[in-house]
Amino acid sequence: MYDVAVIGYGPVGMVTAALLGQAGHDVVVLERYPTLYNLPRAAIFDDETMRTFDRLGISRDLLPTLHVQRNYEWRNGAGELLIEHDFAAVGGQGWAEWYMMYQPYLEDTLDGLVRGLGNVEIRMDSRVDGLRSTPHGVDIQVEGSDTAVSARYVVACDGGNSFTRTWLGVGQEDYGFSEPWMVCDFRLTGPTDIPKARQVCDPKQPVSIISLGPRHHRFSFMLDSADSFPVEREPDRVWARVAGHVGRSQAELVRVATYTFRSLVAERWRSDRVLLAGDAAHQMPPFLGQGMCSGIRDAQNIAFKLDAVLRGADDALLDTYQSEREPHVRAIIAKGIELGRVQTMRDPVAAAERDTRLIALREADGRPEKMRFPGLGPGLHDESPQAGHLMPQGRVESHGAEGLFDEVLGRGFVLLVDGRAGASLDASTTEAAARLGVAVHHLTDRRLTTEGITDVGGVYGRWFDETGRTAVLWRPDFYILGTVGVLLDVPALLTTLASAVEPVQAPATAGEGIRP
Question: Is the whole-model pTM more than 0.85?
Answer without folding.
Answer: yes
